[in-house]
Write a structure and sequence with these properties.
Rossmann fold, 8 helices, globular
Length: about 260
């Protein structure tokens, strides 16, 4: 059965933007077998165009229209729910290219706040400014609530590690646009012209990638690379439909016909 395949990038295809073993071959196989492929990512440090160029340079040829980011979904959300509002963005890197049509401003003029990814350039002054805007009634939304991401030097804290504290301090709830929230998965299915029952999501983050996809009916596949931890598979919590060691094993999963739920 031909399935649409949604792939996370960081920790699945790459780590620190270097291709993982077997990633290029897996992409080639998926395309040769006619599986529609879309890279679905919460990455906010680079634009969709830059992500495609970076992956291509790393030996993973990808076109910009094969990448769907949470930033693109956030642009639609802001224009729909906060039309005309000037936006204060807190993110590691600029989001301007993928937020075309939205006025980006400092905290003194903000009508809405967008939280992206954490990193060395995101510090206490930024987070404190968001807190003060929030208690003043300015809406705050976030691309994701990932708590960590993997680098070549080890794990690093992401924005999701700080969002609960902001919510508690300001007594607000921050809407999430990207994974694991449904809008990004639904946008991915729409982009591929597929339905959830004939699609799978492959990721290294059990909560954001796998459980998020399963919530909208997509088969969830967890890889033991990137931010995967053995305790993801212990306890009474949610379980993936399938577990593979690396992205290189995905063709075998599909080829062997074991890609249906509960098999």
């Amino acid at each position: 059965m031909t399935r649409a395949v949604l792939l996370d990038i960081d920790g699945v295809l790459t780590v620190s933007w270097q291709a993982l073993p077997g990633a290029a071959e897996a992409l080639d196989w998926l395309r040769s077998e006619g599986h529609p492929v879309l890279l679905v990512t919460n990455t906010s440090s680079r634009s969709r165009r830059t992500i495609a160029a970076t992956l291509t340079e790393a030996g993973l040829p990808v076109a910009p229209d094969e990448v769907l980011t949470a930033v693109g979904a956030a642009r639609t959300y802001l224009m729909t729910h906060h039309p005309g509002a000037a936006c204060f963005v807190v993110n590691e890197g600029s989001l301007a290219e993928d937020l075309e049509g939205i006025e980006l401003v400092g905290p003194d003029r903000a009508g809405v706040v967008l939280l992206g990814g954490a990193g060395p350039s995101v510090g206490y002054p930024d987070l404190n400014a968001v807190f003060r805007l929030a208690i003043a009634g300015v809406p705050v939304v976030a691309l994701h609530h990932n708590t960590r991401f993997q680098t070549a030097d080890g794990p690093a804290l992401d924005m999701g590690a700080f969002i609960p504290g902001l919510e508690e301090a300001a007594r607000i709830t921050v809407p999430i646009i990207g994974k694991p929230a449904p809008p990004l998965f639904e946008a991915a299915l729409s982009a591929l012209g597929s339905d959830a029952g004939h699609s799978m999501m492959v990721g290294d983050d059990l909560a954001a990638d796998v459980v998020g996809a399963q919530a909208v009916g997509i088969t969830g596949v967890l890889v033991r690379t990137g931010k995967f931890r053995p305790d993801d598979l212990t306890g009474d919590g949610p379980r993936p439909d399938h577990v593979i060691d690396t992205i290189a094993d995905l063709p075998d999963l599909l080829r062997d016909g074991r890609d249906g739920k509960g098999t």
